[in-house]
Each structure stands twice: as C-alpha cells, then as structure tokens.
Design brief:
Length: 190
C-alpha cells in the first residue's frame, strides 16, 4: 500500500518525464474515450477544472463540452470553500493563489444557486494519484471532499494518465472516490 506522500512523489516523478507531446497525445485519447461514455452523453451540466502542473489537459475538454451544449462550470476557491461558476466561450480568467486559472466570479452563475438538481450533472475530478479500487489522492486541501459532501448525487469521473494509477493507495474514510476513472488506456469502475 502506497502512502499519500509517496504517491505524490511518485506521480511528480512520472509527470516530470512527460513531454508536451506526450501530454497532448494522452489527453486527446482520454477526451475521446470520455466523450463516448454514457455518463458524459447523458449529463446536461459538467463541473470541470482548469488543468495545471502537467495534468491531463482540460482546455480541449472544456471546448468540447461547450460545443456539445453542456452547461460548463469551473471551480473557484474562496477561503476553505470551493464554488463552481458557469463559463462559456467568452469567460475571462484570473490566476488563483495556487496558479490555476479561475473564472472571474459572478455569484449569479454559481452552480449551487442556479442548478436545482445534481442528477443531470457530471463532475470531472482532478487528482494526483488513484488506485485500482478508485481511491484518490488529491492535493491535500480537501476542497473536493467538502464540496462533494454537499452534493452526494453528482456523478464523479476522474481523468488521469495511466502512470497515475497504482495498485493500492492509503486512504481515509472521508476521502471521496470517483465513480469512474478514464485514462488513455482504459476506464476503471465500469
């Protein structure tokens, strides 16, 4: 069993060896698989995220979601809370304190204030590492765990490179797992 700290180190080492072409190629393969899933096709809203730090590139994913007429929301962090704000092709962004692109906040477009049910919504989760039983190691802030406690009915799908998947990770009872993980090679959880 790999500790969270060791998983973060191993994944950082793995990602440091990925070239920009590797990231682009693998991200495209993940996008093509994800958009063919029934969970994606049946979702009206998508809670996505802005990739950074050599993650699966989400820029094209966000463009495809908008093209597919999905309502797309991206997170912003305020204090210890995370909110999702609706975006479109014209949205403007600022860098967060973590160096992540965040949409400029408009409370009128806040997911929790505008969407009445989580049943038609798909959350695409980031993560540093995952295991074969869908456990997830995040960045350690607990933002997704806290948000998901308020939205237990959301369908949760993580995207990751195959090199971020381990046999077994140490996890806590409060860690919320995705329902599925899409890599460039397979879908876990189906």
């Amino acid at each position: 069993m790999i500790s969270k700290q060791d998983a973060r180190k191993l994944t950082a080492d793995f990602k440091s060896k990925l070239s920009p072409d590797d990231i682009s190629y693998k991200s495209q393969a993940i996008l093509e698989t994800l958009t063919e899933t029934e969970v994606y096709k049946s979702s009206r809203q998508v809670l996505a995220y802005s990739s950074f730090n050599r993650e699966v590139d989400t820029k094209r994913l966000i463009e495809v979601c908008i093209r597919d007429n999905k309502e797309v929301y991206l997170p912003i962090v305020q204090g210890k809370d995370m909110f999702f704000v609706r975006i479109d092709k014209t949205s403007k962004y600022i860098k967060s304190k973590f160096g992540i692109d965040e949409p400029i906040y408009d409370s009128l477009l806040d997911y929790e204030k505008t969407v009445k049910t989580d049943a038609d919504c798909l959350m695409i989760m980031p993560g540093i590492a995952f295991d074969e039983t869908l456990n997830r190691v995040g960045y350690g802030g607990g933002y997704y765990d806290r948000f998901l406690k308020r939205h237990e009915d959301l369908k949760k799908l993580a995207i990751a490179f195959e090199g971020q998947i381990y046999d077994e990770l140490k996890h806590e009872d409060f860690d919320i797992r995705p329902d599925f993980i899409v890599t460039e090679d397979r879908i876990l959880g189906l």
